[in-house]
Amino acid sequence: MAHKEIYQEYKDDQRWIECDIFREKYHKMYIDTLSKIAKKYGARISDLWLIQDSMKDSLWRTKLYSKYKENRDEIYNKFGENAGPSPFFKYTYQNLVP
Fold first, then answer.
1. Which residues fall within 8 angstroms of residue 48, CB to CB, at 6 or more apart?
2. Residue 72: which residues within 8 A CB-CB, separation 6 or more?
3. Range of 66's domain?
4. In a domain, 7, yes or no
5. Which pLDDT value is given to residue 81?
6. Per-residue pLDDT averaged across 1-28, rounded?
7. Largest CA distance in the chain
8. What beta strand segments (E) does the chain contain?
């Protein structure tokens, strides 16, 4: 594993998005993945549609399955709102999605 010392620092509190090295790698991999998808279908990145889901509370799935993504609340209660997937979505929508 690269950067074992960084892993040790962040492994218990889930604040990965605050780590510059991790964030830079995430950014690169995100763009690389979009490029691969576009190339596979003979499109440009600007031709891809990126769809954002609604907030958990307003999802139709939550009404059908009350435990949908229930563990997210557990993660936020334990580590704060900068833990779990939420910060990655925020970062992605604010910095990567055109």
1. 34, 37, 38
2. 56, 84, 85, 86
3. 15-95
4. no
5. 65
6. 78
7. 44
8. none
Spatial contact of 91 and 23, defined as CB atoms under 8 Å apart: yes
Q: Please identify which residue in the block is written with the tokens 């925020």.
A: 90
- Return the closest-CA partner of residue 96 out of 81, 67, 88: 88
| Three-state secondary structure call for residue 5 | helix
Domain count, the chain: 1
What three-state secondary structure class fits 21? helix
In a domain, 1, yes or no: no
Domain membership flag for residue 53: yes
- Is residue 87 a contact partner of residue 17, using CB atoms and an 8 Å limit? yes
pLDDT of residue 82: 62
41 within some domain: yes
